[in-house]
Design brief:
Elements: E1 7-10, H1 14-25, E2 30-33, H2 64-67, H3 84-98, E3 104-105, E4 110-115, E5 121-125, E6 130-133, E7 135-138, E8 145-146, E9 155-157, E10 160-163, E11 177-181, H4 185-197, E12 200-204, E13 211-212, E14 215-216, E15 219-220, H5 228-234, H6 241-255, E16 277-278, H7 282-287, E17 292-294, E18 297-302, E19 304-307, E20 312-314, E21 317-320, E22 324-325, E23 357-359, E24 364-366, H8 370-384, H9 393-410, E25 420-422, H10 423-443, H11 454-464
Parallel strand pairs: 1-2, 1-7, 2-3, 7-23, 9-18, 10-21, 11-12, 11-21, 12-17, 13-16, 24-25
Antiparallel strand pairs: 4-5, 5-6, 8-22, 14-15, 18-19, 19-20
Helix pairs in contact: 1-8, 5-6, 8-10
Bound molecules: flavin-adenine dinucleotide and NADP nicotinamide-adenine-dinucleotide phosphate.
NADP nicotinamide-adenine-dinucleotide phosphate binds next to helix 4.
Amino acid sequence: MTSLPTACIVGAGSSGIAGAKVLHERGIPFDCFEKSDRVGGNWVFGNRNRMSSAYRTLHINTSRERMEYSDYPMPKSFPDFPHHSQIAAYFDDYVEHFGFRERIAFETGVERAARRDDGLWEITLDTGETRLYDTLLVANGHHWNPRWPEPRFPGSFDGQEIHAHDYTDPKMLRDRRVVVLGMGNSAMDIAVDASYVAERTFLAARRGAHVIPKYVGGAPVDQPWRHGRLSAVMANPRVPFKVRQRLLERAIEQHVGRVEDYGLPTPDHRIGEAHPTVSGRILDRLTHGTITPKPNIAELRGDRVRFDDGSVEEADLIVYCTGYKVTFPFFDEALISAPDNDLPLFRRVFHPDYDNVFFLSLLQPLGATMPLAERQAHWIADYLRGEYALPDRAALRADMERERERMFKRYVASKRHTMQIDYDDYMYETERECRRGAERARARGFALPVPARAAARREEQGAAA
Ligand SMILES: Cc1cc2nc3c(=O)[nH]c(=O)nc-3n(C[C@H](O)[C@H](O)[C@H](O)COP(=O)(O)OP(=O)(O)OC[C@H]3O[C@@H](n4cnc5c(N)ncnc54)[C@H](O)[C@@H]3O)c2cc1C
Ligand SMILES: NC(=O)c1ccc[n+]([C@@H]2O[C@H](COP(=O)([O-])OP(=O)(O)OC[C@H]3O[C@@H](n4cnc5c(N)ncnc54)[C@H](OP(=O)(O)O)[C@@H]3O)[C@@H](O)[C@H]2O)c1
């Protein structure tokens, strides 16, 4: 039997472990390197890799049944929106259950991933060791490198300025006059935390957002199967987006009303045209008068902040919930990088120029990332085993362009909207593409697209040394 190419997986967060589990069960030789001493990445509160953006009060905002892996349900004793500690324990149990923990090298960072002239990946670890692999799976996460406001706001501030990534505990907000900037999910959670303990909480935003509650009609908003016939249509990829958008708008209008009625700025877009801001609590705290909405920050003035409407407030802490940068510190920037968070890929997995590097969960879904990473991992495994063949390069690039055009046309222009996908549509389209690629692979006699060469090279190098 032809031997399969070897793979290196960077990271053992929820995406890396999905990749490792699939390669493990499908017989593809691999090593997974993880900086931390445990799996779970972002979901390990206080993770010693210092990359987690989790805070003490964090709960997921994609419901349990949406987030669980397909073959490992979360315990029924978990609530619909579990706490981060339950999510981290779930990932740990997953690795234990499927028995691949020993395949992960903990406390071992990938410092450099260089693609040699012969196409093999030369991986340099922070232990100083260098290893060769036929292929590389990138799962280093994209919510750990803070994006601060660019450019900085004019003026200077005497108080403290932190990014959401640095926020860990409501203690940090106690008795302070806090300005929270942003309208994404970090801003919602942190403003709500502040509203209980801070002296004043201001929620500043340069753009309004539709606020989607976690529950609608007594069930999680993202579980259409619990919302009857009409809602099932909303998760049906064969129904045009505009129709689903209108249905969701109606549901939100009925359950929430207009965000302006809570004092928030009018969104300049429709639901589904920005990454969803999900919060079951922000509107409640606004109606209690514990959060004061503001437009964007205009200027920092010592112990005060001036806002775009000319109002000035005393403040001693600003929390910038302004998103994250997509970065790969181990790649040479000229080889692979994501300027302004934009790295075009074929269906968010395959690089158009290199046939042996793949990305897991390098996307922003309307939905949860874990089952998507799992699906992507199977797709990569199909490819590495010769059971899926990519379309030819011209067709692949045309497909990428079409997808990008569609996304940029739909979404508000922002660095946070460079890799948006709809969960159900992505799953559906991926299944179809895998079937098409299986036909192409059959026509090509199931040839391996990436030959297994690294192991032999390693042995030659070992013998020569
Ligand atoms: C506050 C917050 C809440 C969120 N809530 C949700 C939610 O409810 N639902 C949802 O679906 N998504 C949510 N997300 C998105 C989040 O990105 C995913 O939940 C998930 O963490 C993605 O997993 P990952 O494995 O891709 O990345 P991460 O969880 O970031 O894991 C990456 C792993 O790679 C390791 N690593 C990185 N670089 C290296 C290297 N060079 N060498 C070795 N190891 C390396 C890290 O140590 C880490 O363990 C949230 C994000 C944030 C910031
Ligand atoms: N409970 C949860 O599950 C939870 C909690 C937190 C985060 N998350 C997830 O983590 C990821 C990151 O979320 P996030 O909220 O940290 O970041 P985000 O979604 O990128 O949101 C960033 C926000 O900051 C604004 N912003 C950016 N630059 C700005 C500037 N210079 N001036 C003023 N405003 C600026 C953006 O406005 P524009 O829209 O105008 O760009 C946006 O409102 C998302 O996937 C999110 O779903 C989940």
